[in-house]
Structures are given as C-alpha cells and as structure tokens.
Amino acid sequence: MLTWQRWTGNAIEWDALILRLEDFTVYQSHAWGEHRARFGWLPVRMVARRNSQVVAAAQILVRRYPLGVGVVWIPGGPLGDIQSWNKDFRQAIRKLSGLKFLYCRFNALGVRANGVDEMLDSNGWARSSQPLSSGMSLEYRPSLPEEERLQMCSGNWRHNLRRSFKRGLSTSVWANPDPVEMMRAYESMQELKGLAAQTSKDEIESLLSAFGKHCVIVRCDDEQGNLLALRGALAMGGKAWDMFAVANPAGRKVYASHSAFWFLMNQCAIMGVQWYDMSGADPVNNRGVYDFKKGSGATDFTQVGEWDFASPFFLRKPVSYLIGRRGRA
User: Which fold has domain 2-136+303-328?
Assistant: First the structure.
C-alpha cells in the first residue's frame, strides 16, 4: 500500500533521502526550499512510502493568497516512482498546502521515457498548456578526460576556446563572490541584449547564503583584474546544475565565456561531478545560448517537463494562462 505523508525530519535527513532517489535535483534540496522561502514561498516536504520504504518524495512550494486561494509549485520534482504521482499525491498536496482553491504545477527534470506521458495523464495530470520552459536541456560529462571532452566540442567552439587562452585572461574559482559585482555584469549583458532582468542582487545573495560550499563560481578577468565573465553551478551528490552565466561586452570580444565554462567543468571534475545539467535549452527562441551549450559537447535530452492540476478543475486553464503570460513578460 502506498501512502503520502508530511516529512518532519531535518535538512541533513531530507537531503540524504532525496539523494537515494535516482532523479534527484538541487531544486528539491532543503537549501533550495529555504532559499525560495525568503521570497514568499512556503516549503512543505512530503514522502511516499510503500511497505515502509520511501519510493517518492516532493518538496512543494506554496504561495498563499486571501480566502484560501493559492499556488503550489514543485520545481525539479517530484522525485522517485512516477506511478506514485497519483490521485493520493494530489490529495496530499491539497491537504498539506492548506488551500481551498489551488493551482499546482510541477516541472520534473528527468529524462522523458516512453510511456511517461500516458502514465501521468492516467493519474490525473495534464501537460501545462502555457509552459515556462522548452522542456529540453543538455547534459555534460565533466568526469571524462579533458582531451576527450575537447574532442567532443564543435570545431568552432574549440577554436574559440583556444582563442580565449591567447588573450591574457585569468580564470579562477571565485572564493568570495560579490553579489554587487555579479549584478553589474548581469545588468551590462541585459542592456546589450535588450533582456528583461535575469536575476537580482537579493536572489544572488540568497543563493550564496543557502548553498555555501555547494555553490561554485568561476570568474574570468582581463590583465587588469576586471571581471569579463562568470559561470557558476550548484553541486550535490555527484551532479551539478548550471546557475550563473554572464559575459559583459568586453568579455564577449575575447571569448571569456568559453574560458570560464571550461575552467568550471575542470573544477566540477575535481569535485567528482559525473553529470552536469545545462539548465535548459531552447533552439528556437534562444538559438545563441543553445549553440554555445551544444558546441561545448553537451548532449540534448527531453525532460518529463511541466504538468499541472487545479482544484476545482476549472481553475487550471485560466491560471495556467496567467502564469504563462507573466513568465513571458
């Protein structure tokens, strides 16, 4: 018999539990929940047990509004046995969220296997009509020998990497990242590309505080010590997820992004990272970023992706539309 129930253990116990599930992600870690709590989300953790053994887990983030209305977001999850993401799971979400009227969406980042869509559909989930991501990503293997990884790069990417090595750049692990300096780099990139805000100083500070040594950031400087580019990741359990990536206009001219990425992958190899998630790919709407990631030798894969439900059910489409519209704003 399968039962879902609230998890009441501590941070160390929660992370140890999810690391035993093959599809664990950093977005289901205790630290990620505490990070998002600083921005108005309430983390609630639950597990599914079958014959006293944990077979699935989910850290849900709840945002409450007046009159018992709210939204539940499950980033990078649920985890574990997909068959357990059933009506009992949805009922547990309703109960543990404390909401009378709710919209719930998850974004599972594991590889979409044959039959997964049919299974989720039969369990009462619907694929989100207004997804916030493409449902694709790329995986990289930092643990492979460096020469082998170099040969996996496209010819143009490899050429640009070697160009960066000839520009007198200094690349290193940023031991004490400065959120203000990081934000200046992001603002410079946003102005150059005409992008909406990619992050904020508060979000950067929160991530650095929540993850500590599990957040590794590489900076690439010019000969005068001025920041040209940075690349950062969150790592846990032999996996890592791309989190920070930016180059200012001067850095773009000397291929500093290539140097920063390559140095970060070498650091990940030293840390024992076997699998690196490039954190999304959109070859249609963001071709330049996709080409950079693909050119590095990373491999495409399709994720389980975004699925939702609402209670009552008629809230699903209008709320999904509003979330999608806000996400594109």
Answer: Aminopeptidase (3.40.630)
